[in-house]
Known about the structure:
Elements: H1 2-19, H2 23-37, H3 40-53, H4 57-70, H5 75-87, H6 91-104, H7 110-122, H8 125-138, H9 143-155, H10 159-172, H11 177-189
Helix pairs in contact: 1-2, 2-3, 3-4, 4-5, 5-6, 6-7, 7-8, 8-9, 9-10, 9-11, 10-11
Amino acid sequence: xxxxxxxxxxxxxxxxxLAQGKPIDAIHTLDQSIEATNSARSxxxxxxxxxxxxxxxxxxLRTASEYRREYPDQETPYLMLAGMMEMAxxxxxxxxxxxxxxxxxxxxxxxxxQLAVRLHRAGDTATAIKMYEMVLxxxxxxxxxxxxxxxxxxxxxxxxVAKMLASxxxxxxxxxxxxxxxxxxxxxxxxx
Length: 192
């Protein structure tokens, strides 16, 4: 389609402008692309330029919010917005954005995983386990979710479940130092 071709050309122009050290020109070009085509890639590029090149977190947050409004059924805008909210120090807001994404995006693995990691870090292990379980229903081979769930279960004293989860993770990723560490810790706790 014509609109897709326009956005691809404009995004390439923005990349050239960025390479020339002209982030403001690149953002202007991406604004034109967004206005003409509503391109998800243009939203992503603009947000990343604002965040990384201009160090303008508030502008990046506004763009990511607009991106989420335009594409409520895609996981990327929620992930970007949550990441930037966390960078801005709004951890609760980041978790809220991820929860909102879970309601709008079907079949996402990244949204419940990222929410689980944040909940786990914040000490809400009961809810984190539920999110890791959601990930594992979608992808039973998700090593990080298996490993993190095993860690929570071990710390909660359920060494049998922890050992089963960690063993599954180790079978899938025997080269992973963190998986081997978790399994070793569980064996130590259980006196094996």
